[in-house]
Amino acid sequence: MKIQVKRLLTIGTIAVVVILIDQISKLAIRNSLSIRETFTPIEAIGSFFRIVHWKNSGVAFGLFQGYGWLMTLIGLSVLALVLIFFKPVLNGPAFIAIAVGLQFGGAIGNLIDRLNPALGYVVDFIWIGNFPVFNLADCAVVGGAGILLIGLWKMDGEEKRHSPEDIRPAGNSNEPAPEQNN
User: Fold this and answer.
1) Residue 164 pLDDT > 70, yes or no?
2) What is the pLDDT of residues 43-102, one digit of tens each?
3) What whole-number distance in Å separates Cα of residue 91 and Cα of residue 7?
4) Which among 11, 59, 22 is positioned nearest to 140, based on CA atoms?
């Protein structure tokens, strides 16, 4: 039970920090730049990296424009499903809690924008090269997914590295493993 409370606190703390950083950064952009106005913080790399106030009515990285309402419903449904099936997240390895905290924070950060009647769209502002404009909430969602994938991949690799001697037959766990005839 103690580990579950610790994991829940980890997830919640990470999510709150992501939401705060995301919302503060978006507020700064909305207060500093008009929609589509661009700021180049470092002139030397201005053709590669810019800050722009971008209106995104779609999903991450500008996909599915105009379907923000549908994405809001899907986002809320996914968050509800994660909450319903939360036990595996709370009992698993720590990297899962970190990944879920990042994903929750990012998803909620963008949902706040969509549900805000003064906006109704997600504020994106990071423009790198020819990549679609994105925000810090998108970074948290993608980063959380990356941590989850890499962690699960490493866990799978560790399970496959166990030697056959480590595997016991089903039944009485006090019985020694059968000898192998080669």
Assistant:
1) no
2) 999 889 999 999 988 766 666 777 766 776 787 787 778 767 766 677 888 898 899 899
3) 8
4) 22
Q: Give the burial class of 47: count Cβ atoms within 10 A of its Cβ; 0-12 exposed, 13-18 middle, 19 or more buried.
A: exposed
Tell me the longest C-alpha to C-alpha distance in the chain. Answer: 76
CA distance 71 to 34: 25
Structure tokens at 123: 């504020």
Any idea what the Cα angle at residue 92 is, between residues 167 and 98, rounded to 5°?
140
156 as an active site residue: the answer is no
Name the nearest CA neighbour of 113 among 122, 126, 102.
Answer: 122
- Known catalytic residue: 22? no
Cβ neighbour number for residue 84 with a 10 Å cutoff? 8
The Cα–Cα gap between 18 and 8 comes to: 15
Q: Which residue has the tokens 């490493």?
A: 154
Strand partners, 128: 49
